[in-house]
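name: query_chain
kind: protein
chains: 1
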Amino acid sequence: MTKQAIAPEQTEITEEQVIQFLRACPDFFEKHDYLLNELKISHKSGTAISLGERQVQVFREHRDELKSKLAELIAVAQENDQHFEKSKRLLLSLLEIKSLDEINLVVHEAFKNDAKIDFSNVVVFGDRTDYPVSEIKIIDLENAKQQLGSLLESTKAICGTFSQQQMECLFPADYKELGSAAVIPVISDEIVGMFCLGSKDAEHFDSSMGSLFLSYISDFISRILPGLLIKSRSQKTNDQIPSLLE
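structure:
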C-alpha cells in the first residue's frame, strides 16, 4: 500500500507577521511594485484607491502640513521681530526719563500705534502723598492686596481676562472697554508696582501667550523705578524745606 504524503498543516499568517515582514524587507514593494496598484485602501470619499495613490496622497498631506507650520513659524518670527524693535525703542526711551511722572508718557508713546494694544499703564504701590506726580497711579499696598488679590503673588507676567475689580484698579480710566490684559509685576527686593497692557479684544492676551518681551520691559522698569521713587520723595522733601523755614 502506497503511503500518501501528508501535507503539513498550514498556519494562518497574522497581521503582526505581515507587519514584521514588511519592516524587515523595506524594499519589498520595489521588487514587486505591481502590487501597489493591486492593493486597495478605503478613502474618505468612499472610493477605494491603490496603495500607490494613497502614498502620493499622504505625501501631499504631509507637504501641506509642513507648509502650514512653516507659515506659522514665519508669522511668529515676524511678530517677535516687531516685539524686539518695539522693546528696544521703549528701553532706549526709558533710559532718558528723569522723573517718575515720565514713565507712563513713555510707555503710552511706545504702544500708541500698536493695533492690538489699546491701553497701557504703570501702577506704583505706596503712599500717594509721598509722590507729587499726576501722570501715574499710586495706590496703597494694602488696598492693592484687597483689590488685586493673587495677582500680587506672581513674579511673572500673567495674561488673560481678570475681574472687574482688578481691572478697575489697574486701568481706572479704561476698564469698561477692556477685553484682556497682560499684568507684569515690577519687583525690586519686593513688589513696587505693576506694568500693564490691555486690549479691547478678549482673546488677544490669553493664558498661553508668550511673555518674554514683556518680562524684559518689566525687568528694566524694575531697575529704574526704585531710583525714581527715591528721587520723587526727595523732591517732595526739598519742596517742603523752604515752607518750614519761612
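note: DSSP finds seven helices and seven strands in the chain.
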